[in-house]
């Protein structure tokens, strides 16, 4: 087989493993074994380990695929006729909706920080742009900074981790959060404290 054929086969096997892992975790029946994922993909366990030496590598690859193929187009698509605050809400809702649908992956031990880095790192510039526009339009309190949005998304993601599969309870907290953004008489905010990464590491729920 030519080198080109080998590379094509490797890409196809990797894609099969990512698809099989996503499907296996979607059943919310506990953490699937790597042997089960390899069998579902139609490859041997050695092939799985060659592409993904650790389970965390496979889960991160699944989320990267979701971010690139599903979330990115949604986040960049601003609803027609929406205000900048509504556009900000839509981006939050789309990110959280996709994450909620992949709850089994999100709760895999040891991957929360990596996964949230993948998601937030991909959309942080977009969030910053929307925040600046909403502040310019006078729809969002002027003392919010980009790091606040990152920390708030992490807090909202934690409501997904802590609720039963299939629950959309996070929507309640998203609404409460964005109402706080746009309060007409905001209380002064204390100085920016711990970074988002510090919040994860010190949280008993998230710092696993």
TrEMBL record:
Kindly state which keywords UniProt assigns to this record, in alphabetical order.
Answer: DNA-binding, Transcription, Transcription regulation
InterPro entries recorded: Homeodomain-like_sf, HTH-type_TetR-like_transc_reg, HTH_TetR, Tet_transcr_reg_TetR-rel_C_sf, TetR_SbtR-like_C
Q: Name one Pfam family in it.
A: TetR_N
Q: Which GO terms describe its molecular function?
A: DNA-binding transcription factor activity; transcription cis-regulatory region binding
DNA-binding region, residues: 33-52
Q: Which domain of life is it from?
A: Bacteria
**Ranges for domain HTH tetR-type:** 11-70
Which PANTHER family is this protein grouped with?
HTH-TYPE TRANSCRIPTIONAL REGULATOR BETI (PTHR30055:SF234), HTH-TYPE TRANSCRIPTIONAL REGULATOR RUTR (PTHR30055)
Question: What protein name applies here?
Answer: AcrR family transcriptional regulator
Q: Do the record's keywords include DNA-binding? A: yes
Quote the Gene3D superfamilies the UniProt record gives: Tetracycline Repressor, domain 2
């Amino acid at each position: 087989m030519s080198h080109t054929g080998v590379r094509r086969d490797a890409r196809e096997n990797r894609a099969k493993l990512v698809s099989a892992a996503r499907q296996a975790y979607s059943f919310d029946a506990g953490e699937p074994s790597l042997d089960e994922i390899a069998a579902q993909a139609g490859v041997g366990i050695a092939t799985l380990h060659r592409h993904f030496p650790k389970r965390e590598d496979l889960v991160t690859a699944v989320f990267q695929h979701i971010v690139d193929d599903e979330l990115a187009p949604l986040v960049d698509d601003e609803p027609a006729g929406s205000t900048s605050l509504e556009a900000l809400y839509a981006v939050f809702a789309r990110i959280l909706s996709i994450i909620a649908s992949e709850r089994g992956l999100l709760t895999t031990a040891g991957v929360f920080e990596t996964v949230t880095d993948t998601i937030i790192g991909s959309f942080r510039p977009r969030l910053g742009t929307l925040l600046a526009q909403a502040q310019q339009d006078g729809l969002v309190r002027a003392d919010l900074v980009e790091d606040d949005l990152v920390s708030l998304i992490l807090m909202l993601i934690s409501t997904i981790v802590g609720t039963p599969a299939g629950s959309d309870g996070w929507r309640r907290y998203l609404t409460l959060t964005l109402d706080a953004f746009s309060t007409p008489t905001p209380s002064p905010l204390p100085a920016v404290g711990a970074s988002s990464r510090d919040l994860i590491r010190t949280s008993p729920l998230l710092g696993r």
